Amino acid sequence: MARYIGPKSRIDRRFGETILGSEKVRSRRNFPPGQHGNSRRRKTSEYGVMLAEKQKAKYTYGVLEKQFRNMFEKAARTSGITGQILLQNLECRLDNIVYRLGIAPTRRAARQLVNHKHIVVDGKVVGIASYAVKPGQIVGVRERAKSLEVIADALAGFNHSKYPWIEWDEATKAGKLLHRPERADIPENIKEQLIVELYSK
């Protein structure tokens, strides 16, 4: 499946915060990318602000436009607060759960682990990063992959108690999705209501 493979620092500098993990570059060049990035810029329009919020969410979770739109439409059809449901659906993607469990250092690395079939759900290998994990399901590391250095390094010293909606078992190297996260439990700096307003236009 297609994914963004361009420079990570460019995305971080565009939004003025660390999204894809290049804090050093962003702190050294604390202005937007491009020829006129360091010059005075016009005030962003209301539409531009909403569009930027959507783009930020897409880059944060590694989802492309068509897939993101489909996820929004699915959230809109579900009863409840659309923006919150959208974020919950993004958080319950398999690659994100692997990242939240500390099995991988980044979402990109988590996606690669899933694609290379190193991750199991309820004991069965799942190689689809967008797989929707349901409450009660157990996500773990495949037996032959438990000795991988990237996984061992990521788990070393990881604080599993910071996400109250997932439960980690160190002995089995597996975590259980207890329930879908509440909005307050999702640490991402995303104003989901702006995304809802954008798609509602």
Biggest sheet architecture: 5 strands, antiparallel
Assigned CATH superfamily of the largest domain: Ribosomal protein S4/S9, N-terminal domain
Shape assignment: globular
Please report the first level of CATH classification, the CATH class of the largest domain: Mainly Alpha
The first-to-last residue Cα distance is: 29 Å
Strand content: 5-15%
Number of domains as seen in the coordinates: 2
Radius of gyration: 18 Å
Q: What structural class do helix, strand and pairing data support?
A: alpha+beta
How would you state the average pLDDT, rounded? 86
The CATH topology annotation of the largest domain reads as: Ribosomal Protein S4 Delta 41, Chain A, domain 1
Task: Summarize the helix and strand pattern as letters.
Answer: HHHHHHHEEEHEEH
DSSP E strands, number: 5
CATH architecture of the largest domain: Orthogonal Bundle
Number of helices: 9
In the sheet with the most strands, the strands line up as 2-1-3-5-4
Poorly predicted sequence stretches spanning 5 or more consecutive residues: 22-27
Helix percentage range: 40-55%
